[in-house]
Fold this protein.
Amino acid sequence: MHEYSIVRALISRVEAEARSHGAVSVQRLQVRIGELAGVEPTLLANAYVLFRQRTICRDAALEIEAVPARWSCPRCDGPIELGAVLHCASCDVPAHLTSGDEILLERIEMEVP
Amino acid sequence: MCQTCGCGDPELVPVEIHERILEGNDRAAAHNRRHFEAAGVLAVNLMGSPGSGKTALLEATAAALAGRRLGAISGDLATDHDARRLGAAGIPSRSITTGTACHLDAELVHRALHDFAWPELDVLFIENVGNLVCPAIYDLGQAANVVALSVTEGEDKPLKYPVMFRTAELVVLTKIDLLPHLDVRTEAIADALARVMPEVRLLPLSAHSGEGIEDWLAWLESRLRTPGDRPGDRTGRAQRKSRSRAAGQAGTLAR
């Protein structure tokens, strides 16, 4: 359940940002979580609801954008399907992950007096 | 204040961040990495399920590898059994008891280094908490991620836990002396790995019989000659790729 430690890191990052802007409240957080990031969006959302109490995020909605994993060939850019052998047969090179490992805080909406 | 009508209500301000949520851990890991590289110590993050044979692998390493100074930091939810086993095997060790935490993070590793003469070592093994999920997400400052996967875990573990294997530089297939008693094929494990790990490096080994230990030591020696770098980092992966081709480790089972 590392989702709890991720939420702790998320909230302390938001608190620091809110302080530096002199915000009175935070209304919305936007995060991006990749399919191969090892973070389960549902567990993250549950952990967030538990941890946000008594923090500046207590009224803030958490918007989670799930990013699908995409593998491709670094040489010919051809896509390699999830579940397939991660190797481009035509170019004989290992595939690389172009998206899907994100654990990102994208945006905070805060009320500033 | 609201700039539109001057009503005095607070204004809703969007702040763009675009930063990794684990940025704090990444910074601590970068700090550890600088220490390791400056001291010329190869830090290996050894991960795997509980009971996959991580400690036994290190015990066998200590028995077989002469002339290299080894040390370990060992993470467990409770007890210092692993650190004591390693100490008895001649590997100076520190224990990190994580309580309820399912993984080590860079700060925990950093604190454990404080009362440890680690700069004198050649290799520092960071034996992570037994878990195939959480440890893969936290950079500790290691040069290489190694996953111990035992044959008794079955053929499809890589498919079930892709994140752990994607970030591995090497997978050590442990307990191969048990293969005659199991309905498990090494080829099927290699095939599963090829679907989650772009550059499969699978090293079959038995800490019990000693089979494969020479290949493991050869990998360690080749890695000692090419320090730095870390899997999961895209730039790093490209660099490692060219190096590993040059190193041409003996005995690794290619895709």
